[in-house]
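Hi all, posting the design record for the shared folder.

TITLE: backbone redesign
STEP: 1 of 1
STRUCTURE INPUT:
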């Protein structure tokens, strides 16, 4: 595995600290935003995955991977957090989990039908390199599913002395790393919608579908207040992207893909 970047080191250390709590809350379905908002909409974007080869990048403790495996997919999971992968391996032994970077994947080219990045893309320091790697391992016309926080909602800030759901807008156009305060300080890279779409196009992807995430009704019992707000405002979004050939890039966008350099990993998990 390549040497971790500064952001990768901070993200892995933060998730190492909260990995067990995060897994336990997810299994107990106590996390409204993951279980009743992000995951149902991302699964909708994934569609029928029976028999498909799927790579879950930023797989965490393996909840998505396990769900996809039960639905009949051949699943591989990778995460920068050693602790998250330890938990995933201990609970879901039939799935291939590895510690590794999204920017240097240990898998052979043109192997996967679908690549999933659920609530992890803005943890990547070099988003372009991560997209290049996803492009490389995907089959022609394969799909890249990315769920993320809505970048407009990401700049809404709490107001001191006001109730929980009172908010003010920050600077949407100021891109860069911000630290979210959970039980740890978690680095997240804020980018605008414009940057998302520019990156996707520059790295060989076209938008196939898009979802503004709304919560499922079961979430109302878990957190009525969060359900009420999330039913009116999209906290999360889902991009369904399709890998384009160089010919299709020229035909649709009028540009060619830049040459991509990749040093093959001798320990490719899919060899």
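Okay, here is what came back for every position:
SEQUENCE:
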């Amino acid at each position: 595995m390549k040497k971790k970047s500064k952001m990768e080191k901070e993200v892995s250390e933060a998730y190492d600290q909260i990995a067990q709590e995060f897994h336990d809350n997810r299994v107990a379905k106590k996390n409204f935003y993951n279980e009743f908002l992000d995951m149902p909409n991302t699964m909708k974007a994934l569609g029928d995955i029976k028999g498909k080869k799927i790579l879950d990048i930023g797989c965490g403790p393996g909840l998505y991977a396990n769900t996809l495996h039960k639905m009949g997919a051949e699943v591989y999971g990778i995460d920068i957090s050693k602790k998250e992968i330890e938990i995933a391996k201990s609970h879901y032994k039939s799935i291939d989990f590895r510690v590794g970077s999204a920017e240097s994947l240990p898998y052979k080219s043109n192997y996967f039908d679908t690549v999933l990045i659920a609530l992890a893309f803005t943890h990547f320091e070099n988003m372009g390199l991560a997209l290049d790697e996803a492009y490389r391992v995907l089959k022609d016309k394969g799909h890249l599913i990315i769920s993320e926080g809505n970048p407009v909602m990401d700049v809404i800030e709490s107001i001191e002395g006001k109730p929980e759901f009172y908010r003010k807008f920050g600077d949407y156009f100021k891109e860069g790393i911000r630290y979210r305060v959970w039980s740890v300080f978690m680095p997240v890279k804020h980018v605008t919608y414009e940057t998302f779409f520019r990156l996707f196009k520059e790295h060989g992807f076209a938008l196939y579908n898009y979802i503004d995430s709304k919560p499922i009704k079961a979430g109302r019992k878990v957190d009525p207040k969060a359900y009420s707000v999330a039913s009116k405002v999209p906290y999360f979004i889902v991009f369904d992207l399709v890998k384009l050939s160089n010919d299709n890039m020229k035909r649709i966008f009028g540009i060619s893909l830049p040459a991509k350099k990749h040093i093959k990993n001798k320990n490719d998990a899919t060899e």
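COMMENT: Residues 261-266 have pLDDT under 50 and may be disordered.
Let me know if anyone wants the other runs.
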